[in-house]
Each structure stands twice: as C-alpha cells, then as structure tokens.
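This part of the workshop introduces the protein records we will be handling. Each record describes a single protein and holds just a pair of labelled lines. Instead of coordinates, the fold is spelled out as a row of discrete tokens. To make this concrete, we reproduce a full record directly below:
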Amino acid sequence: MLRWRLSRHARRLARAGVTVVADRWPTLEYGKMDGPRIATGLPGLNGAVLRLLAGWERAIYRRIEPADIVFHLVVDEQTAIARNAARVKADKESTQDIVRRFRDNLDFQPIAHRVERIDNLGTLQEVLAVVERHLEQDR
C-alpha cells in the first residue's frame, strides 16, 4: 500500500513540474526485487486466505503510477559481488545472496513508460552525466 501511495504522490509532484528522483521503483513481476511477494499455487501455499491476500497485493501493484522514466543502473555480476564485499553494513547479503538477486533481476521491468539501462561501471560523475543527458533530451 505504501508503494502505491508514494507513486501517487510522485505523480502529483511530477504533474506540478517537479523532477522526482527515487532510488527504487516497483515492478509487476512476482518475486523480483520491489515486486509482489505473496506466492500462490505452490505446494502447501494454496489456501483461500492466501489467495485473497495475493489478489489484494496484485491489485495494489496494478494501481501503482508508472514512472515517466527509470534509469536502471547495470553492472556485471563480478562488480556486484565486489561492491557488496566492500560495503560496511551489519547483516549484509552473502555472495550467494548477491548472485541470486543479480540473476533474478537481469530482466527487471519496472512500472514505467520508459526504461533506460545505463552502464554503472564508471565513476559517479560519469554515470550522472549520462542520466542528465537523458533528462535533457526529455525536456
């Protein structure tokens, strides 16, 4: 419900001429990062209450406002592993978790009118310059 509300708020701001930046955006794809999570149809997971909750979740995700543009920053698997290893964070993901999430989200499709996949191997300044060029093209 929170993602739906935030998407509505972002859309209102965008209509008022504000450039809205979010570090993540939902997808309709089940099981993907930022997508619906309630599983049905799996062995042992087919009760009426579970189906009802999953239906509500899908309905909420279908109502999420699409982003005008999503910049999907892309790195290769080894870079993702190396960046995670360099992070200082309590309870950070294991290498196996990073590999699984990386592979599960290779074809990630956010709820958006347009998705630009951008190579995120450069410096922060280089990546921001690419994003800014895309934003300028849309103005």
In short: The helical segments are 2-15, 48-62, 77-86, 95-104, 124-138. Residues 41 and 70 are 31 Å apart (CA to CA).
